[in-house]
Amino acid sequence: MITKHPIYQDFPEYADKIKDLFHNNDEFQVLLHSYTKLDEKIYKIETDEELAMNDELTQLRKNRVFLKDEIFNFLKDN
After folding, report:
1. Tens digit of pLDDT for each residue in 18-49?
2. Which of 10, 20, 25, 38 has its CA at a distance of 20 to 30 angstroms from the CA of residue 54?
3. Could you give phi then psi for residue 52, rounded to 5 degrees?
């Protein structure tokens, strides 16, 4: 099943912290916006709303994992 991957779903234990950082930390806001935008692009490709080569989709997925790791580290460290 093709679904979006909202960061709140991946880190429910950090939901309050995500909300707080999003509203009070510019760096986190940029990270979260980048992740959300990338996740939306991947979703559109996976649902055939946009076209992409398999290699491109694979790279986008890797980038999403990288951003998710960055967000998780930010949540742990702040």
Report:
1. 999 999 999 999 999 999 999 999 999 999 99
2. 10
3. -160, 150
Task: Count CB atoms within 10 A of the CB of residue 7.
Answer: 21
Q: Which residue has the tokens 């991957």?
A: 5
For helices 54-77 and 15-24, what crossing angle results, to 10°?
90
35, amino acid identity: Y
Distance of CA 2 to the CA centre of its chain: 15
pTM of the model: 0.91
Q: What is the pLDDT of residues 48-78, one digit of tens each?
A: 999 999 999 999 999 999 999 999 999 999 9
CA–CA separation, 77 vs 63, rounded Å?
A: 21
